[in-house]
Design goal:
The chain is mostly helical. The protein contains 7 helices and 5 strands. 53% of the residues lie in helices and 9% in strands. Helix 4 packs across helix 7 and helix 6 packs antiparallel against helix 7.
Amino acid sequence: MGEMIRASVRCPDCRLAITEVPAMLNPSDDEVGYELVDWPVSDRGAVTAALAEVDIPFRWEEGLVIVVAAEVEEQVDRLLDEIQAESAGQSPDAALREEGDEEADGGEEAQAAMADLFVAADRLQHEPFDKGIGDDLVAAAAIVGESLPPFGIGRPEWARIQAMAAAVVTALDGDDDEGIVTGARSLRDFLRDYV
């Protein structure tokens, strides 16, 4: 009745509607920043979309610097490399081969580590106090965090698995029982379709 209603929020750079507000990163001492001032608007938009897709909290700061938690630095490095490769008209796999990686995927080691991660997460959600199970999850998460995705799993899904595993490891390090149970359950549920 004569009132203006804003139906969507628009990105100030690309003017596209933002349908879902991504998770924002709260300031902390353990952060990593990436200066993307020289990146085209479309590539910066792709970074925002990729981080939101894999549920990695972030925030933009003055000077077109995107900030993420230090614990997900490796996953974000990979995502940025992929976006740059695609922007240059090169497939991400080709870029990896140019860097000296002979395999385009993580192979059997990544597949086995993902299966170990599933088993450990499944057990840990029921027994968050079991140090042995926690150690198993930390070991599997370390391999997953350093690996390319196994055959049949996309890079965004793999980045999400890496981020979820890192969150459980952080909860284990902080003796956060509720975070351990919740994170392990979420990780187990996400991995169920891949193992």
